[in-house]
Design brief:
Layout (H helix, E strand, L loop, with lengths): L1 H24 L4 E6 L7 H16 L3 E6 L2 H10 L6 E2 L2 E2 L3 H25 L4 E5 L6 E5 L8 E6 L2 H8 L3 E5 L1 E4 L4 E3 L2 H12 L3 E6 L14 E3 H9 L7 H13 L4 E6 L5 H7 L5 E5 L1
Parallel strand pairs: 1-2, 1-11, 2-8, 5-8, 6-9, 11-13, 12-14
Antiparallel strand pairs: 3-4, 6-7, 9-10, 13-14
Length: 285
C-alpha cells in the first residue's frame, strides 16, 4: 500500500512538472469557456468544473465562463406548458419563451455556477450580456423570434473584473437597440465575447467527444476549410453546426484557437490546456 501511495505521489509530481511549459504558455492568457447545460451534470461534476476555473485563475489564466442551460429551460417551459421548437439547432423564442429563458439563465443557472466557483475559493461574478451593455443584438432571423445575433460586444466590464481577480460568469442574453431582450445561442455568445477579448483560447464544453469524420472517428485538429467541407457533405449536422460555425468565426476574428471539448471527461479543461493529450477537436484558421 505504501509503495502504491509513493507511486501515486510521484506520478502527481511528474504531471505537475510536465505541465510547467503549458502554465508558462497560458500565463495572463484569456480563456473563454462555454459551459453547456448538457455538460453541467450533478453537484459533484459542477464542483469539479468550479475547481478547474479557480485553478486557472490561481495560475494566472483569466477565465471567462459563458454558460448555456438548454435542458433547464426545457424543463421550465414544460412545467409552464409552453411549447418549445428548434430551427437549425436554435430555439425559436417568442415573447413568453424569452421571459422564461431570462429567468432560468440569469437566475437559476448563472447563480448555481457562481456559487460553485465561490465555494471552491474563487471570486465569481454573475452577469448577462445585458449588463454594462456587454452584448448588443439584432434579430438573427424573423422566424426565430427573440433570438439575437451580436452586433457589438463591449468587453470593458470583463476587463475590469480581471483587474480585481474576478471570474466573470455570463448568461447568453443581449439587448436590442429598442431595449428588447434577446436569447443568444450560448456558443454564439461565447464566440463573440472571445473575439472581442482577442482570447487565446475558446473552449466549447459539450456532451460529445468532438467533431467526427464520416467514419465516426473524432478528429483532433481541423482547419476552417475542413469544417466547411464536413458541413457541406452533411457529416457535421444538427446542434454541431452552430458549434463549428462559432469556432470558425472566432478564429477568423482573431481567437488563437477554438476547441470543442468533451465536458464529460473529468478535468477536461485542464487536460486541454495543460497537457499534450488534449480533450477534444481543435479548430484553427
Amino acid at each position: 500500500m505504501k509503495t502504491q501511495m509513493t507511486r501515486d505521489y510521484l506520478a502527481t509530481a511528474r504531471t505537475l512538472s510536465e505541465a510547467l511549459p503549458y502554465l508558462q504558455r497560458f500565463n495572463d492568457a484569456v480563456v473563454v469557456v462555454k459551459f453547456g447545460g448538457n455538460a453541467m451534470g450533478d453537484d459533484a461534476e459542477m464542483a469539479s468544473f468550479a475547481r478547474d476555473m479557480v485553478l486557472l485563475r490561481q495560475v494566472g489564466v483569466n477565465p471567462v465562463v459563458v454558460h448555456g442551460g438548454g435542458p433547464m429551460i426545457n424543463d421550465m417551459l414544460a412545467k409552464l406548458n409552453i411549447e418549445s421548437t428548434f430551427k437549425n439547432g436554435k430555439r425559436v423564442t417568442d415573447a413568453a419563451t424569452v421571459e422564461v429563458v431570462e429567468m432560468v439563465l440569469s437566475g437559476r443557472v448563472n447563480k448555481r455556477i457562481v456559487q460553485a466557483i465561490n465555494s471552491e475559493g474563487g471570486k465569481a461574478v454573475g452577469l448577462s450580456g445585458k449588463d454594462a451593455n456587454l452584448i448588443t443584438c439584432k434579430a438573427a432571423d424573423p422566424e426565430l423570434g427573440f433570438v439575437g445575433e451580436p452586433t457589438d460586444v463591449d468587453p470593458s466590464v470583463i476587463n475590469n473584473l480581471f483587474e480585481d481577480d474576478m471570474i466573470p460568469v455570463i448568461a447568453p442574453l443581449g439587448q436590442g437597440h429598442a431595449g428588447e431582450t434577446y436569447n443568444i445561442n450560448g456558443d454564439t455568445a461565447a464566440g463573440a465575447i472571445a473575439a472581442a477579448l482577442q482570447a487565446d483560447r475558446l473552449l466549447l464544453l459539450t456532451n460529445v467527444s468532438g467533431v467526427k469524420n464520416a467514419a465516426g472517428d473524432v478528429v483532433t485538429e481541423l482547419t476552417t476549410a475542413d469544417i466547411e467541407a464536413l458541413i457541406a457533405d452533411g457529416t457535421i449536422a444538427g446542434g454541431m453546426i452552430p458549434k463549428t460555425e462559432t469556432a470558425m468565426e472566432a478564429v477568423r476574428a482573431g481567437v488563437r484557437a477554438c476547441t470543442i471539448v468533451d465536458g464529460r471527461v473529468p478535468n477536461a479543461v485542464l487536460l486541454e490546456l495543460f497537457t499534450e493529450h488534449g480533450a477534444g477537436s481543435m479548430i484553427r484558421a
